[in-house]
Specification:
The complex is a heterodimer of chains A (404) and B (140). Chain A is α/β, with parallel strands linked by helices and 404 residues long. Chain A is built from 14 helices and 17 strands. In chain A, strand 5, helix 5 and strand 6 form a beta-alpha-beta unit. Chain B has one domain: Sufe protein. Chain: A, CATH 3.90.1010. Chain B is 54% helix and 11% strand. The chains are: A alpha/beta (404), B mainly alpha (140).
Chain lengths: 404, 140
Amino acid sequence: MLDVYKIREDFPILGKKVNNTDLIYFDNAATSQTPNQVIDVISDYYKQYNSNIHRGLHSLSADATNKYENSRTLIKNHFGASHEHEIIFTSGTTHGINIISSGLEKLISSKDELIVSEMEHHSNIVPWQMLCEKTGSKLKVIPINDDGTLNMDEYKSLLTPAVKFVFINHVSNTLGIVNPVKEIIDLAHKNNSKVLIDGAQGAAHFKINLKELDVDYYVASAHKLCGPTGVGFLYGKSELLNSLPPYQGGGEMISTVTFNKTEYADLPHKFEAGTPNIAGVIGFGAAIEYMNSIGFDNIEVYEKELLDYATENLKKIENIIIYGDVDDKISVISFNVGNHHPSDIGSILDQYGVAVRTGQHCTQPIMDHFNIPGTVRASFSFYNTKSEIDLFIDALKKASKMLG
Amino acid sequence: MQSIQQIQDQIIEEFDFFQDWSEKYQYLIDLGKNLPEFNDSNRVDSNLIKGCQSKVWLNSSFDNNIVIFEADSDAIISKGIISLLIRVFSGHTPDEIIAANIDFIEKIGLNSHLSQTRANGLLSMIKQIKIYALAYQAKN
Ligand SMILES: Cc1ncc(COP(=O)(O)O)c(C=O)c1O
């Protein structure tokens, strides 16, 4: 069991007041909050051993390099990758996807097809549209069912021999639905297609084993799992990463440079050109350690309890519509109340100190599917409480009444 | 006819009566509900204002050196804010509109109650109103 009130003491921001009331932070799917254990590690880096990595022979640099590489090991172990060099540090999910999409420019031709789904974040749509524009390849879309789940029958029929790649999110950031990624990957592999999973939302809520999933590429962001912003990782199977050209040229990613020919460095450095976000990477490692100290099993059980409690009570509100109300989901609830515009509800909730996200959540195709301008999205984390949910629902009822 | 400044001062005075944010919001919501019906034929993409989370349409007409604005939104609080803007700007000459210094939003304390996205949307609306006025001024 997890002691939420003790955990809350780790997060200084949770004591903050907004609009003269206590902050209730339910926008965790956008960015999660940062515990002292991570903040301290980042500030420690700048106070104690700020220096460039892999370059200096001096002690500070050695210290920074060790801690940076230790994060790679922590992440490799946590996500069950086979080797450290399969973990590439990025600035986040979007960056990871762009490394792959630009790497594929020379490897994809006009005869090839790519698959995405209707529920993807724009980050997992636009780079592939750009790739298709450059290569003449075709983008096919798996539709969603009216309950928000992926239409797996359609997926199977879209999976033709021309399909080289499948790009799917592990968990929908708008609906919270957990996709059957193992089945998606196995079907793709039988078809000789590779799979990239956008794990921005998945990585934060349950334990993932990349080896067991047998996924080809996996991307995630630290800021969704109690880590700092502007850092994330790209996982790729060694042989695949080796087959891709580097993304950016620069220092750190080469082994020899002459004006005749430059040799690229081995993985992972080939994809880590320039001075990286050293403090961010070290903070990312600390975040993984922090979440493991709480325990992903505990997190999963507790967040499910919050989800069920909130769903049950939200359903008592007149005219509420919840999108993606299925069993297999994380603690994200997207909804509308009657015909009220989500931004009206969001603005009033904000006055009550409740931070939710409103709008399209970078998933316009989902909004088009349901023919709505947007939704209100409340997303809970393991540091939220049932009493916060009570206050949120109370505020929502008042908002709905005000809007009439 | 009151000047733009006089109308703004009147709005500021009205908002002074409200005790807290919820009364201000309720007032905006009521204004939004009472905004005159928008002509369906004007609900076109070329009248959409970019930069708002909700959809906002703004249409203008020009007659006798006077600019008339009408607007609509799919969000009610936006409609309430639009209603105030129309009250301030509509029925004035292009010169008056261009010269107007808009201070009522800050003075009624709306700024601190608007999210950044809403505040940006509001700025876009005012900008668009002034662009219409500039176009009519050039025509004259
Ligand atoms: C499913 C999904 N994909 C991609 C992203 C983009 O992540 P980032 O902005 O950290 O690159 C997000 C974050 O909002 C997301 O939820």
